[in-house]
Design goal:
By secondary structure, the protein is mainly β. Helices cover 1% and strands 47% of the residues.
């Protein structure tokens, strides 16, 4: 089956490393703000996905998405729950914006879904070659038939009648079968393997590859659903004799879609054996019902990935892979048409990810499946949003404005850059940094931004720059090898910026590396020092040449905060955190004077009904560069032991706080916090 082949070839490649940042600065004069409420109000907001989401969740696998109309859609997948393989079906009734789980069962793996309307649908379990039926929108399923060979290409006629391709284990012949009087019966024994099955008006069409040795030939066959005779309509493609035909070592696959009775698009993909190791990856189009075909594009690629097609009405989409130097995850391009294929336009917002399936919910609404996520476009394929799992930031965050936020990391991709335009309520993935998990972000505007991180397994740091809101990034600076620890970047104006690396967990006096720019990042001047206190694994940049570093952020270690005003040459001790406050710190400075600090609060006395106090934090604020602080109690963030806390302020009123995987937002400087994502 074609999609199973894609899933095996294009398994999700993700090396996950979540960098948890701790740190803080505090001065020795603390005063409690008496005018603040002791228990701020907590407002809960419904998350976009109606069930708890873990992070990251590489065990989740998306198998197929389908829509019966512009509103009603379903996706099939499987995940690991307690060591079990659980198949699930999610449904949407609002065109793909929100999804909810309506069915799950252990060891059921639906690889294909097809729905005739909001109630009646079919599902193919390709692991057992079994087809199931639902009559209540996917909430329950009943077994309909078993197949002797491999079943694939589940297709529904306009009347809702299911058709499938049944391929023998030898992979040299295929049967077309359909449901007749409650039983699946053979309709036609094809002269070779059927690559794709599709409906064209009142006819059924099949893309068939030649089974005999010699030149690889792909044919189009068609028949009226009212008759049993199949006719060879035309030759989709034929390749030279040095390009081998289909075999177990040279698999062939394809897609076939129609935008009218005359216009169709086909794709062919094969691993060939020509002298230079070339592959066949081609998209073709016909405007005369299939008699004559001409190429849309021809791409020789280095990895097992071929063109993917989709259509609905007069609209169609073609995804093509482009050449990559490694076979990890090919970049792709997406072309869309709304006039039966007469004109194609390139999707500017396509994230260039390796989607293995495309589809239309309506002529202007598309979906794309990757191995672990579903993306959708609501504007003819130009802009794309991940709708499942709903994107939630997992790494560092920064404000581009009071409304627009950027963050690093997502549940399905720790290298992703995600963006929110509504103060953090909803997020969408902008792009992936491909091997770089950003540890710090700095955006001067909604389009001009910087990211810094360490590409694994390298020991240097990359500083990246974007001028289009994070869609594309260029390398602005690469630090020397051995200088990557906890990199931080901050810009004080469009011209002045600074990069900071601290010494990490070395046993003695550690290395410091920094860089300064005065021309907007075009040139950087390196600064280094070796007399950095041991164990300083996190820090903050307050102003030009003014930085802070924290030591002892792990449990059981006293927290000491150091300051440098000479770019790392000297580090006088600024403050030692009183032990009753505990560990777990995160700070955010708006300027050299104004800063916020979230610190673990262990001063609560145990209650009778709760011998061990629940973890909580306090928010500390300074307006004089850390000489004086006020303290206010944060809401109780969680009922389980916390593992991390991070705080970010964009201005004196707007801030975001993460405890574990729960996000909170404030719009009044930290007096009241609202839980918005979990």
């Amino acid at each position: 089956m074609r999609r199973i082949r894609w899933m095996r070839w294009m398994g999700l490649l993700m090396v996950a490393l979540l960098l948890v940042l701790f740190g803080g600065i505090i001065h020795h004069r603390l005063s409690v703000d008496p005018g603040l409420p002791k228990a701020p109000a907590i407002v809960l907001a419904s998350p976009a996905v109606m069930r708890p989401l873990g992070h990251p969740s590489p065990a989740v696998s998306i198998n197929q998405t389908t829509f019966a109309n512009a509103k009603d859609g379903w996706m099939a997948g499987n995940d690991a729950q307690g060591g079990r393989r659980v198949g699930f079906v999610e449904a949407t009734t609002d065109g793909g914006h929100a999804w909810r789980r309506i069915f799950q069962r252990t060891n059921w793996v639906f690889q294909s879904l097809a729905f005739h309307n909001a109630n009646n649908g079919w599902a193919l379990d390709a692991t057992t070659d079994t087809i199931y039926r639902t009559q209540n929108g996917g909430h329950t399923w009943t077994l309909s038939a078993h197949f002797k060979g491999t079943a694939s290409d589940l297709t529904l006629s306009p009347e809702g009648e299911p058709w499938l391709v049944e391929t023998a284990s030898s992979a040299t012949t295929s049967h077309i079968v359909r449901l007749e009087h409650g039983v699946f019966s053979p309709v036609w024994k094809a002269p070779g393997p059927v690559l794709a099955l599709s409906m064209m008006g009142s006819s059924v069409t099949a893309e068939v590859v030649s089974a005999s040795p010699g030149p690889l030939t792909v044919w189009l066959y068609s028949k009226s659903r009212a008759h049993l005779t199949w006719r060879k309509i035309g030759t989709i493609a034929q390749y030279s004799s040095d390009q081998a035909g289909p075999s177990k070592s040279n698999p062939v696959s394809g897609d076939l879609v129609w935008t009218s009775d005359h216009t169709g698009i086909a794709s062919v993909f094969a691993l060939a054996t020509c002298a230079n190791g070339c592959d066949i990856a081609q998209s073709l189009i016909t405007h005369d019902g299939g008699a004559r075909w001409h190429a849309l594009s021809m791409v020789n690629i280095a990895c097992q990935f071929g063109p993917i097609l989709a259509s609905r009405g007069s609209s169609a989409a073609v995804e093509d892979a482009i050449q990559t130097s490694t076979c990890g995850w090919p970049a792709t391009t997406l072309f869309v048409t709304s006039d039966h294929g007469l004109r194609f336009s390139k999707s500017a917002g396509w994230p260039e990810t390796g989607a293995y399936a495309l589809g239309f919910a309506s002529p202007s609404t598309l979906w794309a499946d990757t191995s672990s996520a579903v993306m959708m476009s609501f504007d003819d394929g130009q802009d794309w949003t991940q709708v499942f799992p709903a994107p939630i930031p997992t790494g560092t965050l920064t404000y581009a404005s009071s409304q627009v936020l950027y963050a690093a990391g997502d549940q399905t991709n720790l290298d992703a850059i995600v963006k929110s335009t509504d103060q953090g309520r909803r997020w969408h993935i902008v792009t992936s940094l491909d091997g770089v998990s950003a540890s710090s972000l700095a955006f001067l505007s909604v389009r001009d931004g910087w990211a810094v991180g360490q590409p694994l397994p390298s020991s240097s740091t990359l500083l990246l720059h974007t001028t289009d809101g994070g869609q594309h990034w260029t390398v602005a600076l690469r630090t020397p090898t051995g200088t990557s620890y906890s990199p931080i970047v901050r810009f004080f104006s469009t011209k002045e910026g600074e990069l900071l690396n601290l010494g990490g967990t070395c046993s003695e006096l550690c290395h410091y590396y920094g860089a300064i720019t005065d021309d907007g990042g075009a040139h950087w001047t390196a600064k280094s020092a070796r007399r950095v206190p041991s164990g300083m694994g996190d820090g903050a940049i307050l102003a030009r040449r003014v930085a802070l570093g924290a030591v002892g952020t792990m449990p059981g270690q006293p927290i000491r905060v150091y300051e440098t005003r000479d770019q790392g040459q000297t580090w006088p001790l600024l403050f030692t955190v009183p032990p009753q406050w505990g560990n777990g710190l995160s700070f955010s400075f708006l300027s050299a004077q104004v800063g916020y600090l979230a610190v673990a609060d262990q001063r609560l006395a145990p209650r009778r009904d709760m011998p061990t106090p629940l973890p909580t934090f306090s928010l500390w604020k300074t307006t004089d560069g850390g000489h004086h602080w006020t303290i206010r109690r944060l809401p109780r963030l969680t009922t389980v032991a916390f593992s991390s806390v991070s705080i970010y302020f964009g201005n004196s009123r707007d801030g975001m706080l993460r405890c574990n995987n729960t996000w909170w937002r404030t719009t009044d400087g930290g007096r009241v916090w609202t839980e918005i994502l979990s």
